[in-house]
Design brief:
- By secondary structure, the chain is mainly alpha-helical.
- It is built from 16 helices and no strands.
- The chain is globular and about 60 Å long.
Length: about 450
């Protein structure tokens, strides 16, 4: 039988590095799915399938908004799963492989271009988002059950965010290159879909196999109904504040992702190399500064470090409003600064989540990991979908012209202004404003002291 979870905040023997690495590999799947649709799906709809910007925004938003309903259900099912692999790992394998297959289907384009093609993408994206819910919720729930040591969970998150940064770099920078190498248009996107599907499958298998020897906790008593579990989540003020902050910040980050191709084309005038360079500058520094953020967190505490990282991220985004008058090298330098803030914002938000889960479990005496992380991933997924939706709405309001040729149409000055503001001022306001929700945030005992 699985070992019972340790008490929240207790100090345990460190987990083996192979468990850290194995768990972190799952971020190949979450990073790829969290990045590529936000980066390429909106321009795929507007500039390859000829879907109007406003309609494309809805097609991107609605399927992921569905996860707000699906994720808590996935969490409850995961909480109650009994198998020789534990409650979480079966979902890493089954849902992870389904996610890979369905992702490739999004870009299969069996109906060419036009309204039927847009409807097909929406349905395929809906199915893929559902598979993602059943992978991500158990995956995010695992750290609170792998160890009761808060410092150890922070180390786990550092591993995870490092792999997440690598996944974002590989999927975000290479995916546009695959589209170009595949001939652009529909054919190029089909090859890209297969490439990202392989990356997702690798992450799912790595997480499943890499955590096979890890303690995952016994299946303990849960709240008697989903409604009761949701009531527990609503009553936990630190979780509620952290979740709302992260959702808003995810929407801000997602507007940046959604705008990369448009910004590279309309502002930098470099549609061929711009997206790849922007991603290299955004994610590359994250791989280097993760140890620095770990030390900052140890010195300031996780909550304070999250605020610092968020302010840095917001300041970098706001500075990009000057991009039209800056040399390209200066723009890429600002994006690198933005990426440093993004790395810290991700690691500390995700490190505080298991602390909330453990605190709620200790307060109630019942397993809450599945539903709390289900709500978390639902919120994150909604935020990541809301960003492209908002960006698409900005494009529609500023008169962006769609195309079905595989290349962007000529745009007015107003449309180019929309591209710029949606990539800079809008995400800066979302990320920076959200930190106000963390005023007075604390757990008992406070993880700042852990």
């Amino acid at each position: 039988m699985d070992a019972p979870p340790a008490a929240a905040g207790s100090v345990e023997a460190p987990l083996p590095r192979r468990v850290h690495a194995g768990y972190a590999l799952g971020s190949l799947a979450t990073g790829a799915f969290g990045t590529v649709p936000g980066l390429l799906l909106l321009p795929y709809l507007t500039d390859t399938l000829g879907v109007a910007a406003g309609v494309a925004a809805l097609l991107v938003l609605v399927p992921k908004a569905w996860d707000v309903l699906v994720n808590p259900v996935a969490g409850r099912i995961s909480d109650r799963t009994r198998s020789r692999w534990g409650p979480r790992r079966p979902w890493l394998l089954g849902a992870g492989l389904a996610l890979a297959v369905l992702f490739a289907a999004i870009f299969a384009a069996p109906f060419g271009s036009g309204p039927a093609a847009g409807a097909y993408v929406a349905l395929a994206f809906l199915a893929t988002a559902t598979a993602f819910a059943f992978f991500q919720v158990p995956y995010v729930a695992m750290p609170a059950e792998l160890t009761g040591d808060r410092a150890e969970r922070t180390r786990m998150m550092s591993w995870r965010i490092a792999v997440l940064a690598l996944a974002i770099l590989v999927s975000g920078a290479v995916a546009p290159m695959v589209v170009t190498a595949g001939g652009d248009g529909v054919a190029g996107h089909r090859w890209m879909g297969l490439f990202v599907a392989a990356l997702i499958a690798l992450g799912a298998l790595g997480a499943f196999l890499g955590t096979r020897a890890a303690p995952v906790g016994a299946v303990t008593e849960t709240e008697p109904s989903l409604r009761a579990q949701l009531a527990v989540a609503r009553a936990h003020r630190p979780f509620r504040a952290l979740l709302l902050c992260f959702v808003i910040q995810s929407a801000g980050v997602a507007t940046i992702l959604a705008g990369v191709s448009y910004f590279a084309d309309q502002i930098l005038r470099d549609p061929a190399n711009g997206p790849t360079l922007l991603f290299a500058c955004f994610v590359g520094p994250a791989l280097l500064v993760m140890p620095v953020w770990t030390r900052v967190g140890a010195r300031l505490g996780k909550r304070s470090a999250l605020v610092v990282a968020s302010v840095l991220l917001a300041a970098g985004a706001a500075a990009l409003v000057a991009a039209p008058v800056l040399p390209a090298v200066a723009v890429y330098a600002v994006v690198a600064l933005l990426g440093v803030g993004y790395a810290g914002q991700q690691v500390f938000a995700l490190a505080l989540l298991p602390d909330c889960v453990a605190d709620s479990t200790a307060r109630t005496g019942r397993r809450q990991a599945g539903v709390l992380t289900g709500l978390w991933t639902a919120g994150e997924t909604f935020g990541l979908a809301l960003g492209p939706g908002i960006y698409g709405l900005v494009l529609a309001l500023t008169g962006y012209v769609s195309s079905d040729t595989g290349t962007a149409a000529a745009q007015s000055d107003t449309a180019r202004l929309g591209v710029l503001l949606g990539f800079s001022v809008l995400p800066a306001a979302l990320v920076g404003g959200a930190v106000l929700l963390l005023r007075g945030w604390t757990l008992h005992p406070d993880p700042e002291d852990a």
